[in-house]
Write a structure and sequence with these properties.
Tetracycline Repressor, domain 2; globular; disordered C terminus
Length: 213
Amino acid sequence: MPRTSERGGPETRARIAGIASGLFVQHGFDAVTVADVARAAGVSSVTVFKHFPRKEDLYLDRSADAEELLRAAVRDRPDGMDVLDSLRVTALRLLEERHPLSGIDERSIPFFRTVAGSPALTARARELGAELRGTLKSELADDPAFEGDAALLAALFTAGYETMLVHAARRLVAGDPAESLEADQRARLDDLFDVLRGGFGAAGSDNRIRPLR
């Protein structure tokens, strides 16, 4: 395959990631090398690594989107809106759009299966989760309007959201339709933010958060 121009930013990055994703789904993450991706994309391995420092990042490329969503929820929230309400609005929007980061996008089923089948991807996903927690902590700590414990809120929110996302993804892969998951996820989001604001006793009159089923 003739080599395409190796200059470029977002378009080149998106094209490489798209080609890599197709190869990983078709052949399995561990069976595809960075050289295979570079060859299929018509670029050099150096160019691939320029955009994606690690092979796992070729597939887990939405972490940058998640990072920007967290930053925007803190920095760009309307005057008078606190951080928890802003994070809740963001999470509900992802759910309503069935965004890949909501866990209920049926187009993501091959992605979820590939991640679950690769220890390397699973480990990297955990690392990226920790990085997102750090991003939110830093944004909260730098926000003059936020007076709480930045580290604690960042840890609780990211852990809670990750738990919900993984649970929904597993149900989606198991065959549950997205329509049946959306209402369940919305109720759990309400529980999550009630708990973050007021403690476990705020999540319903019976003082119990909904069990994962």
